[in-house]
Design a protein that fits this description.
Shape: globular
CATH superfamily of one domain: Vaccinia Virus protein VP39
Structural class: alpha/beta
Strand content: 25-35%
Number of helices: 7
Mean pLDDT: 88
Low-confidence stretches: 1-6, 218-225
CATH architecture of one domain: 3-Layer(aba) Sandwich
Number of strands: 9
Radius of gyration: 16 Å
Largest sheet: 7 strands, mixed
CATH class of one domain: Alpha Beta
């Protein structure tokens, strides 16, 4: 990815975001976010809110997470330059663009076709060649590209979809918000001997996961804590 992100009219707002919202995070995460033009991943009508400390609508009842949450999830994923990451819920493509600077490969799944198309175009425009995007049900993961060093989920099921556990390598991290609207927690798990150990959790607010996750919430999924 080049430095074409730097010369834009939102530069001052991006620097203010870094200074006021991201001071507690590792420098490599902050540097990655300081280079990504967040406004380009947001519909023009809402671009004035790109660097505000809030989630922003991107259409189709979906949002781009607030900068603090993106930095938190990126940090807790513990990304390494050699990692291959599975992302569930491409959305705008912003989280993938941040991770693209920190890991080797990202495999991202989006269930809403217009969002997938828009994210694909935006990521390509900014040279994120290590992001692979698929249209489909994220609860199934991306089995032929597994195993992954980390899995990051940006939409909330009510339990952990079993394929995501199966596709995570032993020792890898899984970040996933779990629960119904208004009662969600962001869980950080690490996989050991085929199961998940809970490392941390904190309250969050994400859009619900759709597709097969709705069936899993009725009893077929796993919540290992």
């Amino acid at each position: 990815m080049g430095n074409q992100f730097d010369a834009d009219p939102f530069s001052a707002a991006r620097k203010r975001m870094v200074r006021e919202q991201l001071s507690e995070f590792p420098s490599r995460v902050v540097e990655a976010m300081s280079r990504v033009p967040r406004q380009e991943f947001i519909p023009e009508v809402h671009q004035s809110l790109a660097y505000a400390d809030r989630a922003v609508p991107i259409g189709f009842n979906q949002t781009i997470s607030q900068p603090y949450v993106v930095a938190l999830m990126t940090t807790q994923l513990n990304p390494k330059p050699t990692d291959r990451i599975l992302e569930i819920g491409t959305g705008s493509g912003y989280q993938a663009a941040v991770l693209a600077q920190l890991v080797a490969e990202i495999y991202s799944v989006e269930i809403i076709e217009p969002l997938a198309d828009r994210a694909q175009a935006t990521l390509a425009r900014f040279g994120c060649r290590n992001v692979h995007l698929r249209l489909g049900d994220g609860s199934a993961g991306w089995p032929e590209a597994a195993p992954f060093d980390g899995v990051i989920v940006t939409c909330a099921p009510e339990s952990v979809p079993t394929p995501l556990i199966q596709q995570l390598r032993d020792g890898g991290y899984l970040l996933i918000p779990i629960g119904p609207a208004g009662e969600q927690e962001l869980f950080v798990f690490q996989k050991f001997n085929g199961g998940l150990a809970r490392l941390a959790h904190s309250p969050v607010m994400f859009v619900p996961m759709t597709g097969a996750a709705q069936r899993e919430s009725r009893g077929d999924g796993q919540f290992l804590a």
